Amino acid sequence: MARSKSSTNTTTTSRKRKNIEDKEEPSLKKPFTQAESLFNNYKDEVECIGPDGVVNFCKDLGFDCDSIHILILAWKMGASKQGYFTKGEFLKGFESLGCYDLTTLKQQLLSLSDKLKNDSPKFSELYKFSFAFASEVDSKKSIDIQAASSMLQLILPDGPHTVNFVEFLRTQQQYKSINRDQWLCFLEFSKTVKSDLSNYDESEAWPLLIDEFVEHVKESSIAVNKEFYTEKKDDRY
Amino acid sequence: MSNMLSNITLEELWIICDTPFQDLFINLNKGLTRKSYMNIYTNIYNYCSTQNERSTVDFYPRVERLVKAKAKEIMARSENLNNDSLLFFFRNQWNDWKMSSNVLKNLLAPVNKIFSSEAKTSSSAPTSAESKIYSDALNAWRDTAFNPLKNKLSVSLLKIIENDRNGDSTNLQVLSDALECYVQLGPEKNKLEIYQSCFETSFLQETEKFYKIESQEFIEKNGVSEYMRHVYSRIEQETNRVQQYMPISTLEKLTKILNNILISNYKEQFAAKFIDLLNEDKASDLSMMYSLLNRVNHLEPLRKNFGDFIKSEGLKEIESNLKEAQEKPQVLISILLKVYNRFNTMIKDCFNNDSTFTTTMDKFFGNLVNENPASYDPKKKESTVPVVLSKFCDQILRKGPYHISDEQELEKKLQEAVCLFKYLPDKDIFMLNYQKMLSKRLVEDLSASEDAEATMINKLKTHQGFDYCTKLTRMITDMRLCKDINANFQNYLNDSNLTLPYTFNFYVLTNGSWSLTNKPSANPFKPPSEMLSSIQYFETFYKKSYQGRVLTFLYDFSRADVDSRQTKGKIYKLSTTAYQMAILLMMNSSDKASRFQILDTIGLDENTVRVPLLSLIKTGVIECAEPSYKNWNNETEFTVNTKFASKKMKVNCNISVQIGDTKTSEGAQTVSEGEVEKERFFKLQAAIVRIMKSKKTMTHNDLTVETTTQVSKWFAPKITAIKKAIEYLIEQEYIRRTSDDNPTSRKYEYIA
């Protein structure tokens, strides 16, 4: 309880301070030094917060490590690798979000994640970022199926095709990884194609992966229908 | 002369004219002497030139009255005549009448002149003045002679035609003359009016009636074949009659009726008979049926049946010889060619070289070529004919039992091969195989004739375009250049005072044009010392002559001739591969060698050395205690067969041996599916990059279509293959997708 109380306190002060900053030519130095000391709390390697530090940081912030908010934070930081924040990235993130402590940060991230839901171009940027972020390879040209599936569930949890697509990725054998083009096209696909796939046109420029996905869904739904039909038939006799 | 120009009145003139005029019409054959003709003409002339213009008007009615009276007088004689006699009488009188009218017209020429100048000044209806007299005469004839008789006449004329149709002899000239009268009597505006209303209509009706009955009876009695012949001659007869004796405008209407009654009414029956005719191979009947049904535009069922027939006949031929057709390229190819020639000839002989039939044949024959049981691979779902055809070409072009030495005969065969080439769905598979086999022929010196090779390449070039054959052309060029290179190398050696221990011949082949690579081996081949100096000399020479070029030695494809001196003094010439030569040279110093020693000396690995050893053992040049290569190890020893003997002095050691399930054959080896797939992927990429480079941006559909056309010369790409290539190029950052909110207007964009 005490803790939460204190945090509300800081929030109010931060708001005040922000107002002051807005009014009188803010000196950016102060929040920086605060962010810097925050960074020092979590860093476990030289100039870098490693996986353990990130876990602690998230916990203190009050978010799951694999939540959309942390992804947004990573995006704002321009983090290049999952599980790591370098000092430069960390400070850049605080700067661009205009925050200097965990409470303001949490507020910012919550409001940002709300805003993003209605800001398609910004969301596209985040989506684009998530590919490189999730990529384990140095070239950032592909991500393996496992990472792609987790990332999709994280970033497009309510997408009309996400559940089916992740399921498809899990069962198919042909693809070991997903490239950038396929990744970007899936967002487009989720935005434009209805959940029943009725407006899907295979003569359009969709990547083969998506063609195959659609075929897979259609086939399995036929199979389901058939089963349903035969069951019904059986009932009759 | 002037005293002759005395005034003359109409009455006086008429006294002079009356009798001769009457005679002119009634007693035409009495004739008119020159003197009296001149006399009458002069008088008329005088009358016209002296009388005032007004009085000439009185002259015409008199003439008109005279002509009418005469016509009546003549026709009075016909009262007791009927049918033919009436017709003949009418025809004769008509011919006379025309003559008489002409004479009268000429006699009255002076009057006509005045009349015509009058007509001009009074600007009355400008009737052709010259024929005023003549048309008066015709009108009199029409009103007095023709009109009362026309029905009778028409009936008689139709009777004549009916007689002609029934084969009774009849006088068609009467028909012609009478109908000429019908036309002459027609009004100036539409000369054919009387002919059409009084004769043509009932003629056409009669014709229709006649043939309706006749055709029905005939076909029932004699069957379709006879009927077709009959119709053919009927149409000819009718056409000729119209052309010779009737106004030609009738022909079109008549033809329509004949086509309708004689052909269209029976076209289903005709077409049903078509298959029988094909089966019985009745060329003349087929040709007749074609020409008849062509008249009524009813060829579609024929084409369809023709197509099916080609396919079923072809399948019959192949199935009766299935096993051989599956195994031997030349059997399948010659069956296909036989079918091709048979139906090509049929189109020429029976179907008038009709291009629509050729199209049908192309479709169905193409289908036969690629989907018969000997050529269709149900597993791969594709035709094997591209491969079979390239094997066929290889067989006839390479030295060996199938080569045709007669130039013209060979040329003919090649031409036929190109004929079938047209029907290949995937011309790239043919080309890849052809290329592979050609490189083998050239490198192993198995090509029977350089000219024939060039001929074939040129044929393919004319058919499929220059770029289709680029690699082949380059290969041939390489071979030509090799002669120069070897000669230059010899000069170089002479100039540098170098000598080679043996004769060497090098082929320098451009990388990329030839599909030749050494099989991968753990250790490289170590050429024996005997070879080494030559190779080094050549390398030095070549690098000096062509700077910056890299030489790779293809030992897998190198050949050698080795002399083997036997203890008995016999010398065998062994033709070997480079590896076999290296093994044999080793055995010069010791009679036996373990596999370890061999590998140590000549390089290679246990897999690559297996085939040379096995074939040397098979020829009997060397021996091994262990017959199965599977049990060989590094200690296995190979010894020289001291008892080696052969009937031939020249022994080929590079013979095929069995390794596992596959036989390493020296014959044609085909290109694998994977290689084809790879080649296609490159082709698609190249096409897409080319297109995008010139168009910069393009929609998915346009790019797909354009790419398909670009590669269609080689193969028909699947959409998925094109997509795969596009996606690969996106990944490689040759192109990208434009970001457009409207998904239908999204495009690809070339990244420069």
From TrEMBL, chain A:
One of its GO terms (biological process) is protein neddylation. Residues 1-28 are annotated as: Disordered. One of its GO terms (molecular function) is cullin family protein binding. Transmembrane segments: none annotated. Residues 30-218 form the DCUN1 domain. Residues 19-28 have a biased composition (Basic and acidic residues). InterPro entries: DCN-prot, DCN1-like_PONY, EF-hand-dom_pair, PONY_dom. It comes from the Eukaryota. Residues 1-13 have a biased composition (Low complexity). One of its GO terms (cellular component) is ubiquitin ligase complex. Pfam families: Cullin_binding. PANTHER family: DEFECTIVE IN CULLIN NEDDYLATION PROTEIN, RP42 RELATED. Neddylation of cullins play an essential role in the regulation of SCF-type complexes activity. This is Defective in cullin neddylation protein.
UniProtKB/TrEMBL annotation, chain B:
GO terms for biological process: protein ubiquitination; ubiquitin-dependent protein catabolic process. SUPFAM superfamilies: Cullin homology domain, Cullin repeat-like, Winged helix' DNA-binding domain. GO terms for molecular function: ubiquitin protein ligase binding. This is Cullin-5. Belongs to the cullin family. Residues 384-617 form the Cullin family profile domain. PANTHER family: CULLIN. Pathway: Protein modification; protein ubiquitination. SMART domains: CULLIN (SM00182), Cullin_Nedd8 (SM00884). It holds the Pfam family Cullin_AB. Keywords: Isopeptide bond, Ubl conjugation, Ubl conjugation pathway. Probable core component of cullin-based SCF-like E3 ubiquitin-protein ligase complexes which mediate the ubiquitination and subsequent proteasomal degradation of target proteins. The E3 ubiquitin-protein ligase activity of the complex is dependent on the neddylation of the cullin subunit. InterPro entries: Cullin, Cullin-like_AB, Cullin_homology, Cullin_homology_sf, Cullin_N, Cullin_neddylation_domain, Cullin_repeat-like_dom_sf, WH-like_DNA-bd_sf.
